[in-house]
From TrEMBL:
Keywords: Cell membrane, Membrane, Nitrate assimilation, Signal, Transmembrane, Transmembrane helix. Belongs to the NAR2 family. This is High-affinity nitrate transporter. Residues 1-21 form the signal peptide. The lineage of its organism: Eukaryota, Viridiplantae, Streptophyta, Embryophyta, Tracheophyta. Involved in nitrate transport. The chain crosses the membrane at residues 175-194.
Length: 204
């Protein structure tokens, strides 16, 4: 009787969690196969310049029809564990509403079982320096996560790549800065020259 009551309580809990939209990452099946350049892993890409080519498909080892509710695939750029340390704003949380692992969207596409789903993404200029991997979520008609796939193993320790953020100043800014500095110096000398002439005129 106690076991029966526990089962009912568990079912009710699952219904409440689903209704509130609190999907747990640990409850998702890894039904998507995801690969991404750069290859081999470990390369460092430059933000604003380099590209990532992502390919995804359904894992055919799962039963046919288990993807019947998939409507959209959302591809995300995610922080590797080493780039999450001491950074609460990138923290991994099982509740996907609170999870901060995958903050950078690459693309969303209608779901297709085909293995020819490919997208080439140019790394945005505002992507911070870090170590990353790529994850795909399968979403239903209400944009709720139903399944996933990613380019790393379960521990997210393999097939990682780095991104180097834009650093330093742009050449055009340096040129503008030099021009303004030169103009300021010339203006200063001109000011002293005019003041000196005025002083001479008054002394006569």
């Amino acid at each position: 009787m106690a076991n029966h009551g526990s089962l009912i309580a568990l079912i009710l809990l699952c219904i409440v969690v689903t209704c509130n939209g609190n999907v747990l990452f640990s409850s998702l099946n890894r039904t998507l196969v995801v690969t991404a350049s750069p290859s081999p892993p470990g390369q460092v890409l430059k933000a604003g310049e380099d590209t990532i080519t992502v390919t995804w498909s359904y894992n055919s080892t799962f039963p046919s029809g288990s993807d019947s509710n998939y409507r959209t695939v959302k591809i995300m750029l995610c922080y590797a564990p080493e780039s999450q340390q001491d950074r609460a704003w990138r923290k991994t949380v099982d509740n996907l509403k609170k999870d901060k692992t995958c903050q950078h969207k690459i693309v969303s596409r209608p779901y297709s079982r085909s293995g020819n789903n490919t997208f080439t993404y140019t790394v945005l200029k505002d992507i911070p320096t870090a170590s990353y991997f790529v994850r795909a979520y399968a979403l239903d008609a209400h944009d709720t996560q139903l399944a996933y796939g990613q380019t790393t193993n379960a521990e997210k320790k393999t097939n990682l790549f780095g991104i180097q953020a834009i650093t330093g100043r742009h050449v055009s800014l340096d040129i503008a800065s030099i021009c303004f500095s030169g103009f300021s110096i010339l203006s200063l000398f001109g000011f002293f020259f005019v003041e000196k002439r005025k002083a001479k005129a008054l002394s006569k």
